[in-house]
Amino acid sequence: MISVAGQQDDPLSEVQQYHQHLGPIPPPVLLPQIPLGAGLSTQTHPPSTTPPPQQQQHHQQRYGMFNPTTLAIPIPDNLRVKTAEADSIGCVEVLATVCSTILMVLTLPISIFLCFKVVQEYERAVIFRLGRLRSGGARGPGVFFVLPCIDNYCKVDLRTVSFDVPPQEVLTRDSVTVSVDAVVYYRIRDPLNAVVQVANYSHSTRLLAATTLRNVLGTRNLSELLTEREAISHSMQVTLDEATDPWGVQVERVEIKDVSLPDSLQRSMAAEAEAAREARAKVIAAEGEMKSSRALKEASDIMCESPAALQLRYLQTLSSIAGEKNSTIVFPLPIELIGPLMNITSSITSKMAASAASTAAGPRPNEVID
User: Fold this and answer.
1) pLDDT > 80? residue 159
2) CA angle, 307 as apex, 289 and 345 as ends, to 5°?
3) How many CB atoms are closer than 10 A to CB 231?
């Protein structure tokens, strides 16, 4: 609608004025479903307000829990693809359509091979007629009809596609440079948006995945990057899914493949881990020595209380030595038994040393020799 000033009126303001004129609109009432054969035809049934299972699953992933008894969440106008086929068609379009139809009739049956197209179960076809998107959504799977010379179509693959994100040099939050690569799985949810809203959805998704990988990893520490890969992958998946939703692309999964650290950092981390292991080993050895010393002290106390225990221990040691077929047997002797013998030996040795010293000195000058 064109106003007097020549400017286009806002259709949203007209809708608001219309609603103000009608007053508040009551909430929708869900009518009970009438079974067939009850006197009414199936055309009189109210339309079902329950969205299809695929839409319920998508809403549950994007908006949380979904109640099937409520109305589906409306799609914003900026995300809904509008077809221009229902608009006013000029004379050129009408003439081109008539000529194409006449050409198809004149070239029968050869034109049948050009007018009927087939798409696979996993494909959909988006048809444009004279540059206008045809109404009715994407065609397929199966056979669909196109007019020669004025219709062209684009095939869209609905299967899950995977691609590798090239290794990205990322500076973490604690100023460590690492190289990270990932793999992304996505599929086409809405073929119309994938064709109309973006020029190349595959190339755009790849560039966006590389940028998102750098942005997400830049907010994490190195320790978080090495230990919380699952949480980082989920965060990337949510971010990519929200960004590619206007394109009709749904990111199903994101996985971080490898985290490459610089060689110097790897050597430093290895030295730190080795030092930590050596420290733990020394602590464990010291604790073992302390426990063994306590056990030996308790055993010596018990042996001091019972002298026969020492003799039994000595016999047990001899038995273990003899069992190994050794030719040498060490016979321990108590210090108390050889103590007097050692004293006598030391006194004799001292006397012999004194006599030897006096003999070597010779007679004194004032001493008279008989």
Assistant:
1) yes
2) 90
3) 11
